[in-house]
Amino acid sequence: MSAATFGLYHPGTSVVHRLPAGAKLLALCAAGVGSVFAASVLGVTAYLAVAVLVPLVARVPGRALVRQLRPLLVFVVVLAGFHALVSSPERAYVVVGMLLALVLLATALTMTTPTSALVDVVVRVAGPLRRVGVDPERLGLLLALGLRAIPVVIGLALEVRDAQRARGLGASPRAFAVPLIVRSLRHADRVGEALAARGVDD
Asked: Which CDD domains match (predicted)?
């Protein structure tokens, strides 16, 4: 399965789609800051309810949403087990629940907002930083590359997993992680060479 299958943005006409990119980005930042003050079972439950409601209102395809979140499952299970072991099940729920809620909201943002609109917002907001030597366009480029890297890495992970199964290597973490890292680094090299060829220095 190719990485191209995993585009982040899904066009639509829902209320969430029609909201300005800046407003959605600001709301996500506010949710991140607010999560510090809502670190309780009740607060996390409220966050999760909103995080599930937003994709439903946006009518984001459920399969596409799950596909974006699936790479996090192993990490989430390990994190929950760690906190349940060293602290309590309630603490595990708070940590993992808040993480999932914020990831869901961020995923809903990228799936309902074109990358170009997000880049424009970042470049516009970072404009005043030009006076202190920061290049807003470079920040926008970094955001675009970061967002584009997500579906690419997911695609590489699935390719490695398919190859792992074909070779009968089962669920070996090493057999999965090493080729994924190597392929990701090769992809990063290719992107760097393409940018250099277009006059974008590093």
From this structure: EcfT (cd16914)
What per-residue string of b and e applies to 147-176 under the rule 16 or more CB within 10 Å gives b? Answer: eebbbbbbbbbbbbbeebeeeeeeeeeebb
**What pLDDT, on the 0 to 100 scale, is given for residue 199?**
66
pTM: 0.71
CA dist., res. 97 & res. 101, Å (int): 6
What are the tens digits of pLDDT across the range 89-144?
998 999 999 989 998 898 889 889 988 888 888 888 888 888 887 788 888 777 77
Longest dimension (CA), the chain: 57
With a CB cutoff of 8 Å and minimum separation 6, the contacts of 139 are: 122, 123, 126
Reduced to 3 states (helix: H, G, I; strand: E, B; else coil), residue 55 is helix
